[in-house]
């Protein structure tokens, strides 16, 4: 990203938690049936090779709000014995059930990897294509993206959890929700009752989570990019100050009125615009720290942060940890080293490496196995 001396040419890139999610709003009525009427089911062979259990990826779909939502239900071939199950919620942007995005040059597979690890540990999972991603697409929102607020996302996650709870072979008393990046916000909303009526959540996983109010994080990320370019001599102090002032003014207006001025200069309109205003205004009402404080003290929570994550620092994630601590010591914080935002081993933390064929964190794999064994 570079800041030009001309207005409107500043390209804001890789504000991945806070910026890109806004084409991926969703729809959903909470489901209470097993496979909802009109749902289709197919099976495909799983890549998991656990010797004691054979698993399959079952492609399921369920209707909600006039949209067919497509998902993958990972479960044992033999469902005579009930197993714990985890709902996996993707991060921001048009991120699909596997953790892949149409705006990236290749696969990332963060959620698919988590599903693989979970099945190796005897845990079923459901991962789904959000509105604007994968097979689900935008549905009725294709011509009205500006109508997408936070409620469709909340409804979507609640519907997915209700759907998972009634699947054959799932122990509905051992349900967990794992959210990556922005997905952690919706995991917290589910756990604290903000997303509607859902089955009891037995455990939470917050992986590189959204740590603060949405617009606060946007401000931090933009300011970091301004500072980096100023230090590199790519922009002047005057331009840096002007961009900062424009950003502050836009955030004040959005918080006060729910609206954004058209055609914000310096590329700020790539994240603050009419199509994103409703979602950002509503999502910004929730502080993850306050939500964490409201998580029942009996709910075990696994939280991760990494020194190489350029999107969210361990210091920022500390806000959530403080909230969990205030609710009771029922959490485990895993400090990862040399792991990027998408959970791959990459000491540089560069977003340009997200789609490279890098290994996922062995340290996280170990921590997850211990957490699942103890909590589920």
Can you walk through the features of this model?
With 376 residues, this protein is α/β, with parallel strands linked by helices. The chain has a single domain (20-213, 285-375), classed as 3-Layer(aba) Sandwich (Rossmann fold), CATH 3.40.50.1820. It has helices at residues 110-120, 151-165, 183-191, 214-231, 237-257, 274-283, 288-293, 314-327, 362-375; strands at 41-45, 55-64, 67-76, 83-89, 124-128, 170-180, 203-207, 301-306, 331-336. It is globular and about 65 Å long. The model is unreliable at 1-50 (pLDDT under 50).
Give a short summary of the structure.
The protein has one domain (20-213, 285-375): Alpha/Beta hydrolase fold, catalytic domain (Rossmann fold, 3-Layer(aba) Sandwich). Helices cover 31% and strands 17% of the residues. The chain contains 9 helices and 9 strands.
């Amino acid at each position: 990203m570079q800041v030009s001396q001309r207005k409107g040419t500043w390209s804001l890139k890789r504000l991945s938690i806070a910026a890109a999610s806004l084409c991926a709003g969703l729809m959903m009525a909470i489901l209470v049936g097993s496979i909802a009427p009109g749902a289709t089911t197919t099976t495909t062979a799983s890549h998991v090779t656990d010797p004691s259990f054979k698993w399959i990826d079952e492609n399921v779909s369920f209707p909600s709000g006039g949209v067919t939502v497509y998902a993958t239900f990972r479960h044992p071939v033999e469902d005579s014995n009930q197993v714990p199950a985890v709902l996996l919620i993707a991060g921001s942007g048009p991120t699909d059930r596997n953790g892949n995005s149409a705006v990236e040059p290749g696969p990332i597979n963060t959620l698919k990897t988590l599903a693989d690890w979970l099945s190796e540990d005897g845990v079923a999972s459901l991962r789904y294509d959000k509105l604007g991603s994968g097979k689900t697409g935008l549905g009725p929102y294709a011509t009205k993206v500006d109508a997408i607020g936070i409620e469709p996302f909340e409804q979507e996650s609640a519907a997915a959890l209700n759907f998972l709870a009634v699947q054959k072979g799932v122990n509905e008393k051992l349900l967990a929700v794992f959210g990556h990046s922005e997905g952690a916000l919706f995991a917290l909303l589910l756990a604290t009752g903000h997303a509607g009526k859902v089955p009891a959540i037995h455990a939470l996983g917050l992986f590189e989570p959204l740590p603060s109010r949405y617009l606060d994080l946007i401000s931090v990320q933009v300011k970091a990019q301004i500072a980096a370019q100023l230090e590199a001599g790519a922009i002047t102090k005057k331009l840096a100050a002007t961009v900062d002032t424009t950003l502050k003014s836009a955030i004040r207006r959005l918080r006060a009125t729910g609206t954004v001025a058209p055609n914000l200069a310096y590329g700020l309109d790539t994240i603050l615009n009419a199509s994103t205003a409703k979602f950002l205004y509503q999502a910004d009402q929730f502080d993850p720290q306050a939500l964490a404080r409201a998580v029942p003290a009996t709910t075990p929570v696994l939280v991760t942060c990494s020194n190489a994550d350029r999107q969210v620092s361990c210091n920022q994630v500390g806000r959530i940890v403080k909230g969990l601590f205030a609710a009771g010591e029922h959490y485990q914080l895993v400090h990862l080293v040399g792991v990027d935002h998408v959970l791959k081993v990459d000491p540089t933390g560069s977003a340009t490496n997200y789609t490279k064929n890098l290994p996922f964190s062995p340290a996280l794999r170990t921590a997850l196995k211990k957490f699942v064994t103890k909590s589920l």
